[in-house]
Design goal:
The chain is mainly β. It has strands spanning 5-7, 21-30, 37-46, 52-59, 62-72, 77-81, 86-88, 92-95, 101-108, 118-124, 129-137, 144-145, 153-154. It is built from no helices and 13 strands.
Length: 156
């Protein structure tokens, strides 16, 4: 049975959460090195009773997208690619953060305005796809930090 998918442009009421997979936030953080790399952040709510797996992500703005995770094996964090699918358990939320799981966006497609809106195509196990509009940000402090069931705040 297919999991219902939906892109949201606002907060999900977790007390009466939808019984579907919903992307609450999608953001692209542009880097300072003339747009050669950027980072992407998603908040995905899985309101279904089944785990879903995020297999891949495509974009109209970047030719190469990797899902990476910061791991602290010593005093210095190490950024490593995530192997396989990223699980999103049923009735749980995946929130990407700067010091955790996030998207590494490389090889930007030529555009006249690097700050223009972008979109992601999220590909889930079973081949289901969801298109999500992403806000483009210039500064890390503009990123949305989402706390399940609470209000959103910006990073300080």
């Amino acid at each position: 049975m297919a999991t219902p998918l939906e892109a949201s442009d606002g907060r999900v009421d977790h007390a009466n959460s939808p019984q579907r997979l919903t992307v609450e936030h999608a953001e692209v953080l542009m880097s300072d090195d003339e747009g050669e790399r950027a980072e992407g952040y998603l908040t995905i709510w899985n309101g279904t009773g089944q785990q879903v797996g995020l297999e891949a992500i495509r974009s109209d703005a970047f030719a190469k997208i990797s899902i990476v995770r910061s791991e602290i094996d010593s005093d210095m964090p190490d950024v490593r690619p995530v192997e396989g699918v990223v699980p999103v358990p049923g009735h749980a939320e995946l929130t990407m953060r700067p010091n955790g799981t996030r998207l590494l966006l490389e090889e930007p497609v030529a555009r006249s305005d690097p700050m223009a809106a972008s979109s992601f195509v999220l590909v889930f196990e079973g081949g289901q796809e969801m298109v999500v509009a992403a806000d483009t940000l210039q500064f890390r402090k503009q990123l949305t930090i989402h706390h399940h069931g609470q209000g959103d705040v910006a990073i300080d």
